[in-house]
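During the second half of the funding period, the structural biology subgroup turned its attention to how the target accommodates small molecules. The most pressing case was zinc ion, which had performed well in the primary screen but for which no bound structure existed. We therefore specified the complex as follows and requested a full 3D prediction, including the ligand pose.
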Amino acid sequence: MKPSPEEQLVFLSKLQRLFSEGDFTATYKFALLIALADLAVELGNDSGEPLELGHRGIAAKFIELYWQQSAPYSTGRSGTSQDVLVQNSGTQAAVITAIVEFRQNNLAATAQSARLLPSYQALILKVGQTVSAQPINYLQNLGGGTDPFLYERVRGAIILKRGVAYCLRRFQPLVQQLARSRWVGHVKRNKLNSPRLGEADDLESFLFETPRQALTIIGAGLKKLTSSHCFYCGTTVHDADVDHFVPFSMYPRDLMHNFVLAHPACNRSKSDTLAALPHLERWLEFITRHDDALNEIGETAGRISDRSSCRSVAQWGYSNAISSGGQAWIKSNSYESVNQAYVDCLG
Ligand SMILES: [Zn+2]
């Protein structure tokens, strides 16, 4: 059932066509592509089977993606104003307006804590309707026609076609990077944003990355939790870095359970590689034992906190490493090949 290498190439070239020929009046289609790739990693598997994704689940991803972006953006430079960035040509995107209104009327620091409020149901419904009527409807329109190569629609959901979840999992970092860079370009090109942007050059980090103050909160929380011990070498650390356990280059999304405390030297040495088996086993134990505390730190720092998604991401990362002959970092200048034992311990 897995797509052949030829089918995977066809998938990639269609995806590329979608980016170059698709008509993007709002940034929704980028959000939808990122949402589909994320959901394929979190809910799908490598069997090649079709995967059903409900509108509600996709709407929840949209809220997560646009949450940070629905805060006012400020360059801090004179001559620019501080306001929410516009993500549709001509007028603000309805999803942003809905989130801005929700945030004005509800006390919720994060998209995740918002989920606990009764009024969140109305927000999901509203965003779900927009997502269904717009990007889900139009994403597969290319060069004047329709090529439904990604999904078909059923009531309240879409079904990713055979091989699509597989390809989205396989090429998730590529989909993320393509969608993000086009997304940033879209926001920059929108004339309505010029009073807000000026010559701003940190747009991508505002739209997608963990704010610096959030990292400070996470670092302080992890220090308390671990009595200031480096996750990798186990010795005491003073000026600690916050490291992405599954590298950010591999999965550019900040999940709270993916953060560990590390010496800057250990962090630099590990760099963009996956961690070796003893680290992986320790990490699994760590996120299980400290699940509640990590959720609490995530809540304070405004980061998504979901242990089971984070585990799925790790499983996906290590499985991909096996199929591409990836290496895992043991310690400075010491590596081994990722093998089946890694995936077994995540199973
Ligand atoms: Zn260390």
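Two results from this model are relevant to the next phase. The chain has two domains: 5-208, 212-346. The mean pLDDT is 91.
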